[in-house]
Each structure stands twice: as structure tokens, then as C-alpha cells.
Amino acid sequence: QLSTNFYSTSCPRAISTIKSAVNSAVAKEARMGASLLRLHFHDCFVQGCDASVLLDDTSGFTGEKTAFPNANSLRGFDVIDTIKSQVESLCPGVVSCSDIIAVAARDSVVALGGPSWPVQLGRRDSTTASLSSANSDLPGPGSDLSALITAFSNKGFTANEMVALSGSHTIGQARCTNFRTRIYNEANINSTYATSLQANCPNSGGDDNLAPLDTTTPKFFDNAYFKNLLSQKGLLHSDQQLFNGGSTDSQVTTYSNNLVSFKTDFANAMVKMSNLSPLTGTSGQIRTNCRKVN
Ligand code: HEM
Ligand SMILES: [Ca+2]
Predict the structure, then answer these.
(1) What is the average per-residue pLDDT within 10-37?
(2) Which pLDDT band holds residue 127 (cuts at 50, 70, 90)?
(3) 278 C-alpha to ligand 2 centroid (Å)
(4) Is 39 part of any domain?
(5) What is the pLDDT of residues 1-15, one digit of tens each?
(6) What domain count does the chain have?
């Protein structure tokens, strides 16, 4: 089973090494904190938190990196590689890639002003990955509220936890291809906001042009994401679904008024997400290189 002190004798400097590396990556580029948080989500929702998301494709192996939600989108692999090589030189073969992602996600949120939470450790790394699960189990930006609730319920989360976790979109960016339909065709969007986004996200072309998920404070982990939803300034269709006359409206309103309750619920939901079906004991392995099976 997992424990917070898993490396305290086998690699006592592991956790502080991860934190320093995350702090310097985020100092260099704030968005990297968002990217590392998302990496953990996309790992845990596919086969559990087992670093399956980090495996590169080879001629004989197809991993998750080309899945629709991941391709040309997931970032942070180089930061994880850097951390892994630092930790390998301290304690070879001891610290898993999946634990590194989990700690890096927590340290990223803290670095951007968000809440902290205890990260349970001792996950091991998979020898497999699942392209098909990545395509089916990660919710897409065109999802309606019912689909979002179902996608999270399939992993054991309540609708309340889904809303709290969606508050991750208080940091980071999205590509035009993921919000184009919303800014040109939807009615439940603030028209000034839509027009301002259209300048950098044309009707055709510019698919990879970026816009912040939180138009107010994209580099700070606060509750502005929920405040934006109240004024119909959610960037993704799926974001605005959380405040669109449905069952989650009241929770969005609460979080928009109560930063502490958002941070508390977010931290608790992250602990739960981090614990999704880890490999323990003699299952899996401690990868030497996070990109490939030993
Ligand atoms: C509720 C369902 C969710 C949907 C439909 C969704 C969808 C998306 C999409 C489409 C993007 C932009 C990707 C791109 O354009 O390349 C994105 C970015 C992001 N997502 Fe989510 N997401 C969801 C939940 C979550 C959760 C639960 C987390 C973390 C716990 C998360 C963390 C992030 C972060 C931090 C970014 C910005 C990443 C960056 O700037 O590199 N998302 N999400
Ligand atoms: Ca995984």
C-alpha cells in the first residue's frame, strides 16, 4: 500500500529534489505548472496512476501519446525526464516515474499559489499503456454536463468532485481547435469575450493558437475560473457546462465566492485522483527511463 514516507529511508532527498526541479521549471515558464498537473490527470484516468502516459511509441509498441486528448497537447515530458535523471543519480532504481508525476503535480499547484495535499507514495510503473482507454476515458472539450459527470463517475468520482477538479482550468492554456466552435457558434458565451478570442482563433487555420483557460489570472491558482463561468466566460464548451442552468450551478457559485472551500475540495479530490489503482508490491517495475519499459 501507498504511504507518504515511502522513500524516507530509501531515497530521503527524492521529494525535495522533485520540488526544486518543479520550482525552477515553473519559474522559467508558469504554464509548465499547468502542464504537469494535466499530465497527472491524463495518467491517472488511464490504467490508474502508473506513468503509462509517459511511454513513447516504438515500432512494436503503441502508447498513449497519440491519443486524441494527448497528441500535440500534453507537455512536461522533458521536465519529468530531468527530474528522473536527478533522482536516478541519487538513488538508482528506487523512485517510480508515477510517483514523480504525482509529486510534481502537487508541487506545481503549490508553486502557482494553490493548495497543498499529502501525496501517498510507492506507486510502481506500468509495462503497458492503453491508447484506446486514453481515447475513451478522458473527457473531451465538447462534452455536455451529463457526459462529464459520467466520465468522472466511471472513475469513482462524484459530480461535486468533478466540478472541484475542473477548477484546474484556473491555470494553463488551450488550443484554438478545442474552443473554435464555442467562440463562433455558441449562445451561452459573453460576446465581448468571444470576439476577443476570435482575433487569435480564426474560423479556419490557427488550430494550435493558444488562449488561457482562465482569462483573468491564468498563471495563478485561484477561483477566478469559477467567477468567469458566472459571466459566461468559460473557454471550453465543457467548462461552461458547469454553469449553464444545470445541477452544478450552485457549486460553481459557491466556489466563485469561497476560495477556501474550492481549495479544500480540490486538494481532497486530488488525493483521491492520485490514488487511482496504483501498481504496488511486485506489480509493474521502477522504470530507469520514464519513456520506456526496462
Ligand atoms: C472536466 C473534464 C475536462 C475536460 C473536458 C478537459 C479538457 C481540456 C482541454 C481540451 C484542454 C486544452 C488542451 C489543448 O488545447 O491542447 C485542457 C487543458 C488543461 N486541463 Fe483539462 N479537462 C478536464 C478536466 C481536467 C482535470 C480534472 C484536470 C486536472 C486535475 C485538468 C487540467 C488541465 C490543465 C492544467 C490544462 C492546461 C494545460 C497546459 O496549459 O499545458 N483538466 N483540458
Ligand atoms: Ca496511467
Answers:
(1) 98
(2) very high
(3) 9
(4) yes
(5) 899 999 999 999 999
(6) 2
Does the annotation mark 42 as catalytic? Answer: yes
Whether 107 maps to a domain, the answer reads yes
Q: What is the tens place of the pLDDT at every residue in 176-186?
A: 999 999 999 99
pLDDT of the residue at 187: 98
Q: Do 134 and 234 sit in the same domain of this protein?
A: no
Q: What is the largest CA-CA distance in the chain?
A: 57
In the chain, DSSP assigns E strands to 173-175, 210-212
The residue segments making up the domain with residue 187 are 145-269
What's the angle, vertex CA 146, arms to CA 141 and CA 152, rounded to 5? 75
Ligand 1: which residues within 6 Å by Cβ? 31, 34-35, 37-38, 41, 73, 75, 139-141, 143, 148, 165-166, 168-169, 171-175, 178, 213, 236, 238
Predicted pLDDT at 278? 98
H-helix or E-strand containing 33? helix 31-44
**Top mutation candidate among 169, 217, 244 for ligand 1, by most atoms within 8 Å of CB:** 169
Give me ligand 2 centre to Cα 289, in Å. Answer: 16
